[in-house]
Amino acid sequence: MSDTSLWRLSAAETAARTTSGDITAEAAIGASIDRMEAVNPRLNAVVESLADEARARARALDKARASGAPCGPLHGVPVTIKINVDQTGHATSNGVTAFKDLIAPGDAPIVDNLHAAGAVVIGRTNTPEFSFRADTDNPLFGRTHNPWGDHISSGGSTGGGGAAVMAGIGALAHGNDIGGSLRFPSAANGAVTVKPGLGRVPAYNPSQTGERGILAQAMSVQGLITRSARDLHLSMPTAITPDPRDPFHIPLPWRGAPLEGPITVGFTKETYEFDLHPEVSLALDAARDALNDAGYNVVEIDPPLLRDAGMEGYRALMGEVLALMGPDIRAHGSDTVQAIFDEYFRQFAPYEGLELMQMMAKRTHYARVWSLFLEEYPLVIAPFLPQPFFAPDRDTEGAEGVREVLGSALWSYAMNFMGLPAACVPTRLADLPNGPQPINVQIIARRWREDLAVDACIAIEDRLGQMCDPLWAQMEKHGA
């Protein structure tokens, strides 16, 4: 492989080669920066290039290795960081013009952990205003485009990270997820992720002036997006490294105890009142068949209380958002995002007062029901969205637009409300009238068993391939 194509390497391949001395960190990072500079002008995925400091850090890593210093597990791996977490000396704008000069005085735990493992941050990626849309556009930096084409949204809120990693800008992309913000962009771009469960990855922004609401603390998690499922096993042990600034972090190892015998996997195509698209149905079939072929025991299930958990959970979150974020959205949000929030509040009528307290308490009921259910079915294959991923700005198109984008995502935000791990993996490339696009499915796991979900993603990927391969072939055909 030539130095100019080193950007194609997975995180695991990059770390192995930089650690062995087969290639230098400077070469790996240089190739990724060159790729960023070649494709990012069209995508607008990275909105702050850190090329100069990344090259300097790569040279320092090479010098340390040459002097005999041990290499971290992500030695020389290029990564991107989402602009809603703190990175020393850089703005944590969260896509909001009023926050463009909010310079971080220190690093968030996820940034510290990646640095300590030897990763190199090459840029910061785009997010919608307040990181609260499933599409990525904002008045400060503009729209992030999907590398598959402008017929598909790049997803959100980690749209910049999802587009970047699939286009070859870094092997890993940091993101976070309060209702689907790791999984939406993975589904949009054909990437792989696992939304960690509650308490798995430490979180804190040194720039913050107050604490987040209790539901935001319970539902929001930090994570990583990649194009190779195996890279999650490499990188997530770094992400979960404890940090005392998060007092509720759970310091468990990444790998849990092996399960005896073939793992039983629940399988469902249930989408409730939303129509299941034939391509999504085929993608679910592909995941089922791949896991059966890999030795899993896949059986049909009737998922308990999923719709109730999703809708009541999101209405509770909207109640907290209305009370705690509402003033900032009104003061600093664009007309576009204010209209979208107005529709959120119509479709997910916010619980307030006593009702909000009751629904926050009821969260434990749903989590308990699913905890018992997952004793019998340690993994569950389910839809992520009932339809192929939507077009850009779909959520600006009134009630029907918001219903398609977020209303139908019951399988997404229910997992946040219950704090369960949920992976998202592509299993089909659909040939649709507006152009090709990936279709992802969701794999839900027992609490604390993100590793089982990633194992299943690897089994699927081994049989169906990585979605970056047809994407890069398409991009090369069009001169990227």
From TrEMBL:
Recorded superkingdom: Bacteria
Pfam family name, one: Amidase
Segments traversing the membrane: none
GO molecular function, one term: hydrolase activity
Sequence ranges assigned to domain Amidase in this UniProt record: 29-451
Keywords tagged on the record: Hydrolase
This protein's name: Amidase
Organism: Antarcticimicrobium sediminis
